[in-house]
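Audit log entry. Action: structure prediction of a protein-small molecule complex. Ligand: zinc ion. The ligand was supplied as SMILES and no pocket hint was given, so placement is left entirely to the predictor. Protonation state taken as written. Sequence taken verbatim from the request; no trimming, no tag removal. Recorded inputs:
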Amino acid sequence: MSDVLTLAQEETQLHKVAVNEMAGPCPKCFGTDRFRVRYSREAGTWSFMCRSCWDAGQYLPEKGRKRGWGDAIDYVRHYRGMTFQEAKALVDGHEGETSHSRRPQPPSLTPEWQSATHKAMQAHQSRLWSHDTLALEYARRRGLYDHIIKQFQLGYSIHHGIPSLVIPNINAGRYVTVYRRDLRPDVPKGQRWKDAPGGTKDELYLADCLWLRKDLPVVVCEDALSALSIYQECGDLVNVVATGGAECGMLTRWIARLACAPVVLISLDADAAGDRYAAEWLMRLKNARRLRPLLKDANDMLMGSWDLREWVLNALDSVGADLV
Ligand SMILES: [Zn+2]
């Protein structure tokens, strides 16, 4: 038998908020102020609630009551998209007996990967700030200030003898991707950036800002360094996220979230792939406009001493007039 607490702990980090109640980021909508699981002593079971993505007030005629807090079967149907039969089989511990077995869980969601990644990132951060300044110098050459390098927990890894700058993508308190830039001088262009194994391509970099500062315009970049460049120069004016690749990040949940922003500036790279996928974002988001970088990307602009703040402000000005 699986209970709600065990299921939720596979997907999010919970902390105790009352004797019988735990809270943490919602595994579906990622909000940090709305997801709870609680234990009922009378029923002897755990149940869950998300004030945003779980409609507790919906009336269920077959049960003659409102939906209320969800049980374990509700949980896997809601959070893992299972049918009732699949959910029941999983919760009862007979998942192998159904024709469609449980949706495979990305490795990034396992507690093992989380703790291994956390441990590795601690070591990578210490190395970055050690006497061996290869990665730190590289990050500085890319135009980043030390406080940004520190705040976003950049690190320096050496894996099979290959030195890399590593940038963790941490959403709703869990690691989802670790971007790695190979720092060997002779590494060919197409092989410089590789994600560390085990992460997912489905998450936007810095996505938490979309929930924490809902009223700000959003800039969508392609890579983490461009996102950090924009955050550094005008993070007080806009939210910024990165897709992790021209073709990445176009999932319904991100589109739904971005559709709520006042304005979305699509700043994918100024190249053929960036233009092509930018056009797709524009088709899906009425509030989006293309903000084509004046060099290849926003980080190149920062390194070339362009005024990113001015550039973004100008774009917001003209978009404002356009959207009214
Ligand atoms: Zn939710």
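Audit: result stored. The longest helix spans residues 111-128. Residues 26, 28-29, 31, 34-35, 50, 52-53 surround zinc ion (CB under 6 Å).
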